[in-house]
Amino acid sequence: MTRPLTLTGHARATLALGLPLIGSHLAQMSLHVADTVMLGWYGVTELASVVLGASLFFIVFILGSGFAQAVMPMVAQALGRGDEAQVRRDTRMGLWLSIGFGLICYPLFWHAGPILRAAGQDPEVAQLAEDYLRIAGLGMIPALLVMVLKSYLAALERAQVVLWATLAAVGLNVALNWLLIFGNAGAPELGVRGAAIASVAVQLLTLAVLGAYAALLPALRRFHLFQRFWRPDWQALRQVFALGWPIGLTGLAEGSIFQASALMMGWIGTVELAAHGIALEIAALAFMVHLGLSNAATVRAGRAQGRGDAKGLRDGAKVAIGLSLGFGLSMVALFLTLPGPIVALFLDRANPDSAAIIAFGSVLLALAALFQIADALQVMALGLLRGLRDTRVPMLLATISYWLIGIPASYILAFPLGLGGAGLWMGLVIGLTVAAVLLMTRFWRRAPKP
After folding, report:
1. Of 44, 148, 255, 339, which has the fewest beta carbons less than 10 angstroms from its beta carbon?
2. Distance (Å, whole) CA 264 – CA 256
3. Residue 3: pLDDT band by 50, 70, 90 thresholds?
4. pTM for the complete prediction?
């Protein structure tokens, strides 16, 4: 019989799985940061258009990635029970659902210009965003397939390959951006279209690497993941769909509050929107650490649930929450002490708008410090609840917190009360705090007791 882990043992196990996932999330986020930095050097209008375009892509991606995220706890629980056939069935149908979603959503990207103009965005910015999305949207299917394979490999505790593949993708993205955005080394100068081509290329590369690893690694061949891939498994597909759609909608509810804030920031001005995009990228980098720890908590909670280990589940949850809170406090200190220099890293000082963007971005980054703890707690609670395969009620709690509380608070603070962009971000703080309280309460009431 396996001896129960101490709290130190839980910390080691969580970090052993979580650190590669954190690294891969940070590397994945670096793809977007590279686009933001390099387009910031290229032009403020181009930067604002990709802030909008990438935000729309991300919102749709988050919705579709619910099926991929459902694979993680399902595979973890199947492994905890020793059911290897179910591992293959769930993962394969996650891949099927991701392909279908990617095909359905592409028309939205093709017609993004009129949608953004109807939302009150500057016509030039909206047109450039559409140019970006018509190309970048082709990467939705490979991006979602990568997410399924990441979930599968994470549940198998094979996250290191995800990190290395994503790091290779970052290098390729920077090189292709340098060539295609600016037209260096004889390449055509494509601006936002060049950034989109680079994004699609790196998604295809990452998919090829992870797919080959999952199919060819001797230790994983026993799962026969791609054998007779074309054969449907309707029972598994229904199970993945049933668990995945609430996850996708939960992510949509959270992610869309930032999209809505970007749209409202666009009503205030292009400089403010550019500063919003930069501050959001920085805050999102910190969030990737919390997300990686949350993913590790999902896997470890799912494994514990599968083998009926209630004490291990609760102890592991306490340790994962503590690790996430510790990192959150360090980010609070960083954002409050060095906001200006951090924002300045994303801009060319020679640009005449840089000073205004840095000044406004510094205010937003200081406000981002306020929601670090709430953000850590809400994403950790969601990860732990997914480990228990509890997704529908958390979806409702998140939607209430973000859309019935957070967005109205943002609008009221920004416009009727006249606080502008700072008010928008204060509303985000309120919504995330409510979500953290409700979701953490839900987890501790649902977690099995020893």
Report:
1. 255
2. 12
3. low
4. 0.83
